[in-house]
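Entry 12.
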Amino acid sequence: MTPPLARHDAEGTQRRRVFATLVLALAASAAAAPASANPLPLQSDADRAAFLAEVRAYRDASRVRWVIAAPDRADALAELARVEAQLPPSERDLASRITAQVLDAADATGTVRAWMQPQFSASGAANACSWQVWVTDPAFPSPSTEPVSTPLSPNDRLPVGPAATFRVGHAGLLQSRLYAFGETHAGAIRDLATAPEVNVPVSTEPGGETLVLATSREATPFLESLKSALADSEGKRLDLGVKYALRDKMAGKSRGIGANIQAIPQSMIADSVSQVAVNTPARDETAAGKLVETCSYVLIPTQ
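Predicted 3D structure (tokens):
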């Protein structure tokens, strides 16, 4: 079982310690979370409408998928067709997130139902990030009493309930500087690297929480100053004022934080930064040593 995200500082030994503690442990997350929501029934048009409302609510979480299960495949496919028939043409893309499945033979009820099923593997440059974020929420529709944990991709927006928690992991270079922050309103920030919990509780503020995770080949002045301001916070959120607002400093007010942004550290506080894919080769080794990867994830309270 992986220990929680540990403290890290500029020293190489400490950074290596942090890397060792940042590997994600999905099984541990699930075991530590409370009992999850039941699967959603699919017995009527009203049930199907309620199910589609859930699918729509999570459309901005790119790795959330759904299962419709029935005692045999023909029934599951028929129910899937009935659900798809309720989708207007403008939302037909949501149908690709739903699959049919046969219930286990030992299932006692045999009733048609649906639940959330995350997509564990990500593909494409848009999903590239050396950070990993997993969210566990007892409110996610689940096939059993075990809660569902879903991974996120950069720029995802995930609705969460008041009991949701998240874990942060990193799989980048050992010599990198790591920065992990959670911000609610501008300047209200916590340093996730010093949070004592393995599973960090999600903020319940109405505006939700933006996770800003950065990896840098060398110290980034603005993020280092932010770490210093939060040095004695022990993972608790402090209101540092708008001068520390992460969204404004790192990507500009008009765009918000984009996934896979790389910039020279001194440019992190400029009005504009260059946005390129993480895997784009650098032109020279000097520039490569200064690049910063920034990934963001937004957790919003369920309506």
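Annotation: The mean pLDDT is 77. The chain has two domains: 12-32+124-301, 40-118.
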